[in-house]
Amino acid sequence: MKPITLEELTSPGCQICRAFEEFWHAIEKDWPNVAFKKLDVTTLEGQEMAQKHMIFASPGIILNGTLWATGGFDRNKFIQKLKELSNG
């Protein structure tokens, strides 16, 4: 499987962010090729990421440096995208 970078841009009190993290932690054992990084929008690094990808809603989900979703996520589509990226 090809390596994948998964970055999540979060904001304090974001319930959808928490739901994504719970979902990710439930499936991450099936995706050893994915490196996960969580960024808080209140940090300088998080603000730079938000500006770079023009993220206006949390969470911002970035796969291999490309914005995949903001403000919510579809579990099935996320898994499908991981499969696509893993197989190249």
Describe the structure.
The protein has 88 residues and is α+β, with helices and mostly antiparallel strands. It has one domain (14-87): Glutaredoxin (3-Layer(aba) Sandwich). It is 41% helix and 26% strand. It has helices at residues 15-27, 44-53, 75-87; strands spanning 4-10, 34-40, 60-63, 66-70. Strand 1 (4-10), helix 1 and strand 2 (34-40) form a beta-alpha-beta unit. It is globular, with a radius of gyration of 12 Å. The termini are close together. The mean pLDDT is 97.
Helix content: 40-55%
Shape: globular
Biggest β-sheet: count, sense, barrel? 4 strands, mixed
Strand content: 25-35%
- The largest beta-sheet arranges its strands as 2-1-3-4
Question: For this entry, what is the oligomeric state of its chains?
Answer: single chain
Q: How many domains is the backbone divided into?
A: 1
What is the CATH class name? Answer: Alpha Beta
Measured on Cα atoms, how large is the radius of gyration?
12 Å
Q: Termini separation (Å)?
A: 8 Å
Number of helices: 3
Question: At CATH's second level, what is the architecture?
Answer: 3-Layer(aba) Sandwich
Number of strands: 4
Nearest-integer average pLDDT: 97
Order of helices and strands: EHEHEEH
Under CATH, the topology can be stated as Glutaredoxin
